[in-house]
């Protein structure tokens, strides 16, 4: 039967699971408060670590999040929960709230075998008539039930929205990047007084994934790209491991640059490679392009000027079992570009077809123990005739002597390094002879596995920034042409399409992009891919193009 409260309810009272409005907000300045004031002192914007005082302050705030939300529940026998809940009227009114079960045990005395189906109504008067009729028909009861929630139930965003100074225009500073076990924040200046509290809340709300919370202090180092950081909460452990593209990368986050938000771009670039191709990664970092490419069977020459990145690159190549296909270097980018052309010719990386699977290794080990040679027949099990040939350790064909792809992921300055390609083949020809080089180019031209263009000249994928938001394509191509030494009238100059395929991805929808040229006038194989918004007036792009012979021979 229905509870008597149903007849006394006169108006609907919407359910609210939001934190109480009575929770005091922190103030921007730690000032002496008047009697009865609820302001809280906060740590200074800069200075000594204040994590312990913040933890104590947060502990005092937590009880203020305790709250009870009264709902109406349908009391049913435990064995009938599935049947009753499947009724269309009940299903339509069942409470659906994240992290809350819609069916709970009945805590009232004498109802141990009952369950409560929680409804999304605050009073019995709101319950639809068909549910009331169902309760009367089946002898069920509509009863009030209090849902107890507290600090642990709320998300980091909800907690910080409740206690930080209210500023609807800028939102709550709960956005961060996760790199392994490290959460990396980039707080605006107005939130610096509360940075330790913000860090502690994020740490507590992600106990299974985050152990360290840091905040970026300064701009990225101009040479090595890493930045100074401040520990906000958790362990002072900066050596972390990130997983991406079926590879793992271990590094010291304080000493290298790694942005997990670029994993889609890493995958996109690697997807342009083909097994057996030769790849030169000029600014490789810890290997987000180089290692996946090597794993798929590319021969890779990887470089980074930062000694810490180079050390991680070497270790990660071994950890991912691709050291046989990925040679690592620690050189200036321009030097590496010119040297990698020569290294590829000398085949400093041996034949490589990617790491062997466990099944392949087991089969190879078995064959070696049996003393078999390449192509001998081997039985699948004892007592069976030998019917299947086994390749004991057949080496893949030698790699190409010419680089197929150059990757340049240093957005702040990579375009400037394009000048290193000017005369790169002319320098190689002086060392090996022009005839030998021409013969190698002719062999690529005769290949049937690639397009006509791809048979001859290498592709370059260079990341860059632009602030010319209304003409990004022309701006990037102009800067690239300048570095390549191609004048505005040179027949091989880079001309971008009017609207590259990724133009629609740009988030600057309020800024019109000028259509400067028609598609027909664009340089073949020139691609401009929008990667991400870096700042309100700065975007990151990737320019891909095929190096013309006039640049490689500096003709």
TrEMBL record:
Enzyme class at the top of the EC tree: transferase
Subcellular location: Mitochondrion matrix; Nucleus; Cytoplasm
Main location, first listed in the record: mitochondrion
GO cellular component: mitochondrial matrix; nucleus
Binding site residues for S-adenosyl-L-methionine: 266, 304-305, 332-333, 409
GO molecular function, one term: tRNA (guanine(37)-N1)-methyltransferase activity
Record-level GO BP terms: mitochondrial tRNA methylation; tRNA N1-guanine methylation
EC identifiers of the protein: 2.1.1.228
Reaction(s) catalysed (UniProt annotation): guanosine(37) in tRNA + S-adenosyl-L-methionine = N(1)-methylguanosine(37) in tRNA + S-adenosyl-L-homocysteine + H(+)
Keyword terms of this UniProt record: Cytoplasm, Methyltransferase, Mitochondrion, Nucleus, S-adenosyl-L-methionine, Transferase, tRNA processing
Ranges where the SAM-dependent methyltransferase TRM5/TYW2-type domain occurs: 176-549
InterPro entries associated with the record: MeTrfase_TRM5/TYW2 (IPR030382), SAM-dependent_MTases_sf (IPR029063), TRM5-TYW2-like_MTfase (IPR056743), TRM5/TYW2-like_N (IPR056744), tRNA_Gua_MeTrfase_euk (IPR025792)
Residue span of region Disordered: 28-53
SUPFAM superfamilies xref list: S-adenosyl-L-methionine-dependent methyltransferases
Biased composition (Polar residues): 30-40
Biological function: Specifically methylates the N1 position of guanosine-37 in various cytoplasmic and mitochondrial tRNAs. Methylation is not dependent on the nature of the nucleoside 5' of the target nucleoside. This is the first step in the biosynthesis of wybutosine (yW), a modified base adjacent to the anticodon of tRNAs and required for accurate decoding.
Family: Belongs to the TRM5 / TYW2 family.
Oligomeric and partner information: Monomer.
Protein name: tRNA (guanine(37)-N1)-methyltransferase
Organism expressing this protein natively: Pseudomicrostroma glucosiphilum
């Amino acid at each position: 039967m229905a509870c008597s409260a149903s007849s006394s309810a006169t108006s609907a009272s919407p359910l609210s699971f939001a934190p109480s409005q009575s929770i005091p907000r922190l103030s921007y300045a730690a000032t002496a408060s008047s009697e009865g004031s609820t302001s809280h002192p906060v740590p200074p914007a800069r200075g000594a670590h204040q994590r312990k005082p913040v933890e104590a302050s947060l502990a005092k705030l937590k009880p203020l999040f305790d709250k009870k939300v009264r709902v109406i529940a349908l009391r049913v026998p435990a064995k009938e929960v599935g049947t009753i809940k499947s009724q269309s009227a009940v299903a339509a009114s069942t409470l659906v709230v994240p992290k809350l079960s819609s069916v709970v045990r009945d805590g009232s005395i004498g109802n141990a075998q009952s369950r409560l189906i929680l409804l999304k109504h605050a009073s019995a008067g709101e319950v639809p008539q068909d549910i009331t009729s169902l309760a009367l028909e089946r002898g069920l009861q509509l009863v009030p039930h209090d849902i107890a929630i507290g600090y642990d139930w709320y998300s980091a965003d909800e907690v910080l929205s409740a206690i930080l100074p209210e500023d609807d225009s800028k939102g709550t500073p709960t956005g961060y990047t996760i790199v392994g076990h490290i959460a990396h924040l980039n707080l605006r200046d107005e939130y610096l007084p509360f940075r330790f509290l913000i860090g502690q809340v994020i740490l507590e709300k992600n106990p299974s994934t985050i152990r360290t919370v840091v905040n970026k202090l300064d701009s990225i180092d101009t040479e090595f790209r890493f930045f100074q950081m401040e520990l906000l909460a958790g362990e002072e452990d900066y050596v972390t491991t990130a997983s991406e593209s079926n590879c793992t990368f271990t590094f010291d986050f304080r000493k290298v640059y790694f942005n997990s938000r670029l994993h889609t771009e890493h995958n996109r670039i690697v997807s342009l490679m083909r097994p057996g191709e030769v790849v030169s990664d000029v600014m490789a970092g810890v290997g987000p392009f180089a290692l996946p490419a090597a794993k798929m069977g590319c021969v890779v020459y990887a470089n980074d000027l930062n000694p810490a990145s180079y050390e991680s690159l070497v270790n990660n190549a071994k950890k991912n079992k691709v050291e046989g296909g990925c040679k690592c270097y620690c050189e200036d980018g321009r030097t590496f570009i010119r040297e990698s052309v020569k290294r590829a010719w000398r085949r400093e990386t041996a034949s490589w077809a990617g790491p062997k699977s466990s099944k392949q290794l087991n089969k190879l080990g078995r064959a070696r123990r049996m003393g078999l040679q390449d192509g001998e027949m081997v039985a699948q099990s004892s007592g069976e005739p030998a019917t299947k040939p086994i390749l004991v350790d057949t080496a893949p064909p030698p790699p190409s002597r010419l680089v197929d792809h150059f990757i340049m992921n240093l957005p702040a300055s990579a375009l400037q390094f394009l000048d290193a390609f000017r005369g790169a083949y002319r320098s190689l020809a002086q060392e090996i002879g022009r005839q030998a080089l021409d013969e190698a180019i002719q062999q690529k031209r005769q290949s049937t596995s690639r397009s006509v263009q791809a048979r001859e000249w290498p592709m370059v994928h260079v990341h860059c920034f632009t602030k010319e938001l209304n003409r990004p394509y022309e701006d990037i191509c102009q800067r690239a042409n300048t570095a390549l030494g191609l004048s505005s009238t040179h027949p091989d100059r880079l001309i971008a399409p009017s609207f590259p395929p990724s133009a629609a991805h740009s988030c600057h929808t309020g800024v019109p992009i000028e259509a400067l040229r028609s598609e027909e006038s664009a340089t073949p194989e020139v691609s401009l891919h929008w990667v991400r918004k870096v700042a309100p007036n700065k975007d990151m792009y990737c320019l891909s193009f095929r190096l013309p012979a006039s640049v490689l021979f500096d003709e």
